[in-house]
Amino acid sequence: MIITKELKLISEGELNIINITDKIDDIVRETNIRNGACLIFTRSSTSAVTVMEFEPGLVNDIKLALERLFPKNLQYEHEKKWHDGNGHSHIRATFMKPDLYIPVMNGSLALGTWQQIVFIELDIRSRERSIVVQVIS
Amino acid sequence: MIITKELKLISEGELNIINITDKIDDIVRETNIRNGACLIFTRSSTSAVTVMEFEPGLVNDIKLALERLFPKNLQYEHEKKWHDGNGHSHIRATFMKPDLYIPVMNGSLALGTWQQIVFIELDIRSRERSIVVQVIS
Amino acid sequence: MIITKELKLISEGELNIINITDKIDDIVRETNIRNGACLIFTRSSTSAVTVMEFEPGLVNDIKLALERLFPKNLQYEHEKKWHDGNGHSHIRATFMKPDLYIPVMNGSLALGTWQQIVFIELDIRSRERSIVVQVIS
């Protein structure tokens, strides 16, 4: 059985990192599934989902690492197509990927103690986002 | 129920980035599954699958980012084993990973407007590749 | 049907890369599932799972790439919270992600010839680790 839900959220601009653990866990609990797999997918080419210890210092460290690896001020050929200044956003999303899998055990997400699920807005402004959450049992 | 298919393709040399969205969507449609999960896996240690807006500028930007992060001309210890000049290819594949998950809704891949699924040839020459596509419902 | 197992292992310090292919394949074989999907998740915020050709040269190349992309000796704000010297470990784990999917065909992991599944200890000392392995059929 697969239950599919959509999580909507509005990001607060570039590199807004949002802890979505509780919202995903609520979706899992509402399914009443005890043992299964939770699959998460962000439906955009300029955002990502991953796992981290969600604390302010590390949130800043992640932002700095993204800028160090994929600098915003390089010349991107993508600019020639749309001129919307988000070439770096696309590259970051393609490397981080839009998908994530978390096991479900005993009716809840089987995360480690320091693991939280985060959505990362990689685009250059606030966006309304759609995240698909599927629970398989 | 899990339906397993194999997608075969021949890449055109190093950093050939191939849009495989239509081929994956065809596989999904042939299953007649309305609601489920699609899992994609490239069976090689020198290639990757991910999601991007497939347009020529961004395709070039991704190639440049791969070369910036994992330069081809560094000394790789892997060369000592096989002397086949693809140490950088392996590193790139290990970081990008071989797997991808896309939800299936209303009988089709639930991608965002600008998301296409791509196969990236990371090895240094044309190769025949095998990609496993599984649809779970 | 989803069968959930836990794989416990003790890492031997920072950047210990452990080939867990045989252990995962044993779990798959014990389920007697012929055709399905295997999902793997490391339950920690300072480790990762991925796929690589497991040979000593490439193991060293991966370690050097991690250090080049996410240097250990940068100033990380995460240090202000815990002072435990593993800011770089968290960043590396967040970029590499804790999850992996491998197809199961003919009762076994459908890996390519040169693909092995590895656990990477990203924290700065030996740790006891828990990896969840789920087989879906």
Structure write-up:
The structure is a homotrimer of 137-residue chains. By secondary structure, chain A is an alpha+beta fold. In chain A, 28% of the residues lie in helices and 36% in strands. Chain A has helices at 21-31, 56-69, 79-82, 87-96, and strands at 2-10, 17-19, 36-42, 47-52, 99-105, 108-109, 116-121, 128-136. In chain A, the strands form two sheets. A five-stranded antiparallel beta sheet of chain A has the order 1-8-3-5-6, covered by helices on one side. A three-stranded antiparallel beta sheet of chain A has the order 2-7-4. Chain A is elongated and about 50 Å long.
What labels would you give this structure?
alpha+beta; 137 residues; Jelly Rolls; three-stranded antiparallel sheet; five-stranded antiparallel sheet; 28% helix; homotrimer; 8 strands; 36% strand
